[in-house]
Structures are given as C-alpha cells and as structure tokens.
C-alpha cells in the first residue's frame, strides 16, 4: 500500500474530479459509516484536509489549561450558592465560552440511553438509514453526512442525524424507531436545563432571570446526533473542522472517547470527558446580543482510530419556522461608552449566512454583522 505524507496526500487531492467523487459519496446515502463498513483502509481524497490544519490537530493539547466545571447543585434553594454559580458562569462565558456542568438534573441513565440510541441509529442497516437521508434542512428529521459537503475543501469524518425537537413538538413515529422514545425524553430534560442555564446567563449579564427566555432564546431546540466512525488515517482528516456555533447556546453530550477541543489563548485545549457532565458553549447569537460580553469560541473534533465516537449537540435557536423577530445587542447592555457592536438580524438570516459561508476554516460569520 502506498504511504503518503500529509503534503503528498493533499497534493494528490488536487488531481482528480472532486465534485464527481462528492456526488458519488452523497448519492450512496451510506455516509462515512458506509465507507468503513466497506472495509476501506485509506481515507478517500474528499476527506483529506490541508496540511496546515492537520499539523495543528496533531499537536498535543496544553495540559496547563482545563475547561471550567460548574456544579449546579443547590442553586434553587441556596441563594449564596446561586450567586457563586452565576459568577462562575459569567467568568467562563467571558473567557472560555465553554464550561462543563455537573449535578444538572438529567439522570445518568438518560444520558447513557441517549448515546446508545444514537449509536443504534448509525449502526443499523444502510437501508433503514436511507429512509431519512436528506439535504433539505427545512425538514424536521434528516440523516446526512457533512451539511456543507459541497462547499468545503475537505469533508469531515462524521455522519449526522439532524432533528428539530422544538418549538413544534415531534411524535415518536416522526423519529427513527431505534431512538425516537429516548430522543423525546432527553429533549424534554434538556429544554428544562436550558431554561436554568439561560436564567443563570441572564443574571450573569446583570439582567432579570427571565430576560433571555423572554427573548425566546430557549424556544427552539435542534439535536445534531453525531457519529464519528473509526478512521484508518486520522492524521489526514478532521472529525469536525474548526468553527463556532450559530445558535444562542449549545449543550453537548459526549461519550468517553474524547476528541473535542476548544481554542483558548491561541491554543487548542482538550475538553476531556467527565462522567455524567454536559458541556455548555456560547453560540454566535448570544455573543451578538450580549454585545461581545460573552464569547462564542472556536472548537473542533479531531479524528481518531479508536472510534466510534458518539455525541449529541443540542442547539438552542429557532430557524424553522422562520420568525421576523429581530435580534441585536440588548439595550440594557449598551451605553454611550459601549455602543452596539452589531446590527440587528433575524435568526434565519444569521443561520443562512452562517451555512452559506461554512467552509471549515474557522471564519466567524459574526464579522459580517458588525457595525
């Protein structure tokens, strides 16, 4: 078997009909999991990333930094403890844009069953999955590989089951049979947690607890049920390229495999799995309405040969159905000395711009909305 360096592999990707291979991959409706099931031993060229991106991905994470962990125990009945938590949330949201939460109220059994459900969906027969395959993201349920497959220079080693769980509630029969019930249960609990998190974030901004909820930041919920198969050449591709999230807030459930990294002080830091914890990160829209007080940080997932890795990213925002509601910097957070930094936008406009320009290079869509 021909063994290529990263530079040689990338050069080789420039000498083929990329669009044809992307189309063939897309029309197989089998995703990355289908490639692995077919027994491939080399990463197909459409997945080979630029050497510069891969070089940084191979670098060791700085062990001196650790994503903050926030304990939500007793925040309802103990006012002093709540004040401490609000301060911790404020600090993490301003500096990291990331934190992990424990004692969040969702039982470990529910978390484990959710991960198992996602695994069952992606590991079932290809014919069953094909019934849900779609690139129409106005639908409530869609299975696909790489939402930006036709736009990026390198595809990611990842398959996704996309489900819009709120504001319009789904029934179990709308969802895949192998995971529908647990998705409904998990989503209900995540929505409750989201309400708590938005209260804490509101207080961290010096606002009334219901401020962000009243702005409908917690109204919509989208689940991205991700599956990262074992990769034969993880040094040549990424699980998920560097990016920020386009929503208000993301709550992430990840399994024990790891691979998630956040950019902090110009260094990629591992977000190591903590049993029973959930990861929370600030999205672009929350950075926009907080007028840059909170930070939507770049993050990524490195490929691995130990997989599969399973995660569930819970996006809080409402893009479907579209709403004319405008979002701009919250008026209580602006002043003559700190004027608004962004123009107003609808969620649909922002998400559409984000998706149209999502090339996997870490470029933030927020720049296009700055005043």
TrEMBL record:
It comes from the Eukaryota. Gene3D superfamilies: B-lactam Antibiotic, Isopenicillin N Synthase, Chain. Its cofactor is Fe cation. PROSITE patterns: FE2OG_OXY. The keyword Oxidoreductase applies. InterPro entries: DIOX_N, IPNS-like_FE2OG_OXY, IPNS-like_sf, Oxoglu/Fe-dep_dioxygenase_dom. GO terms for molecular function: dioxygenase activity; metal ion binding. Keywords: Iron, Metal-binding, Oxidoreductase. The keyword Nucleus does not apply. Pfam families: 2OG-FeII_Oxy (PF03171), DIOX_N (PF14226). Residues 219-319 form the Fe2OG dioxygenase domain. Belongs to the iron/ascorbate-dependent oxidoreductase family. This is Fe2OG dioxygenase domain-containing protein. It comes from Eucalyptus grandis.
């Amino acid at each position: 078997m021909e063994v290529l360096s990263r530079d040689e592999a990338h050069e080789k990707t420039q000498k083929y009909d990329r669009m044809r291979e992307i189309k063939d991959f897309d029309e197989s409706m089998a995703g990355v999991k289908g490639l692995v099931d077919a027994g491939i031993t080399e990463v197909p060229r459409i997945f080979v990333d630029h050497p510069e991106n891969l070089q940084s991905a191979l670098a060791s994470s700085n062990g001196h930094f650790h994503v903050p962990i926030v304990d939500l125990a007793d925040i309802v009945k103990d006012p002093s403890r709540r004040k401490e938590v609000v301060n911790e949330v404020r600090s993490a949201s301003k500096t990291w844009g990331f934190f992990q939460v424990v004692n969040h109220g969702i039982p470990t059994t529910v978390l484990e069953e959710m991960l198992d459900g996602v695994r069952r969906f992606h590991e079932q027969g290809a014919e069953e999955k094909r019934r849900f395959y779609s690139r129409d993201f106005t639908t409530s349920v869609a299975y696909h590989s790489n939402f930006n497959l036709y736009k990026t220079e390198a595809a990611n080693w990842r398959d996704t089951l996309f489900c819009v769980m709120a504001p319009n509630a789904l029934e179990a029969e709308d969802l895949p049979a192998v995971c529908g019930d647990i998705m409904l249960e998990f989503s209900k609990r995540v929505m409750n947690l989201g309400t708590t998190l938005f209260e804490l974030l509101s207080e961290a901004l010096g606002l009334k607890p219901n401020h962000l909820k009243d702005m409908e930041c917690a109204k919509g919920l989208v689940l991205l049920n991700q599956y990262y198969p074992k990769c034969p050449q993880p040094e040549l591709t990424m699980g998920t390229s560097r990016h920020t999230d386009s929503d208000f807030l993301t709550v992430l459930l990840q399994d024990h495999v790891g691979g998630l990294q956040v950019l902090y002080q110009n260094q990629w830091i591992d977000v190591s799995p903590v049993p029973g914890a959930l990861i929370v990160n600030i999205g672009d829209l929350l950075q926009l309405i907080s007028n840059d007080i909170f930070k939507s940080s770049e993050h990524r997932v490195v490929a691995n040969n130990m997989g599969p890795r399973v995660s569930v990213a819970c996006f809080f925002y409402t893009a479907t159905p579209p709403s004319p509601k405008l979002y701009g910097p919250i008026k209580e957070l602006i002043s003559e000395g700190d004027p608004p930094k962004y123009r107003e936008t609808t969620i649909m406009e922002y998400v559409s711009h984000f998706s149209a320009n999502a090339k996997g290079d870490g470029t933030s869509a927020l720049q296009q909305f700055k005043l």
